[in-house]
Amino acid sequence: MYKNKMVIYDPVNEAVVFGKEREESGRSFFYAPGLSNELKQSILKIVNTFEFNRLRDLKQAGLAYFVYPSALHDRYSHSIGTYYLGYIALRSVRVEISENQEVSLEKWLDRLDLKEEFLVALLLHDVGHLPFSHALEENRIFGKFKVPKHEEIACELILDKGDFCNFYKKCAESENKVLNTPKVHRLAEVLSGKPSKKIDVQTLCYLISSEEKYLGNSVKNLNDRKTPPKVNEEDLRMLHNLVSGLIDFDRIDHYLRDSYFMGIKSGVNTKVLIESLIFSRDYKIKISDIGVPQVVNLLLLRDSFQTKYFRDLKLLSLQAMLNAAVEEYFKSLDDAQIECKIREICHFNDAELINFLFDNGSKSIKNIILRIKNDLPYVPLQNDPISISNSMLKNKENLLKFLDDIIKKYRKYFSTNYFLLPVTSWKFGEDKKSNWLDLDNLKTEDGSPVSTKFGFNNLIDYLKKASDEKLLWLFIENSDQNNIIINMLNEIKDGTR
Question: pTM, whole model, 2 decimals?
Answer without folding.
Answer: 0.86
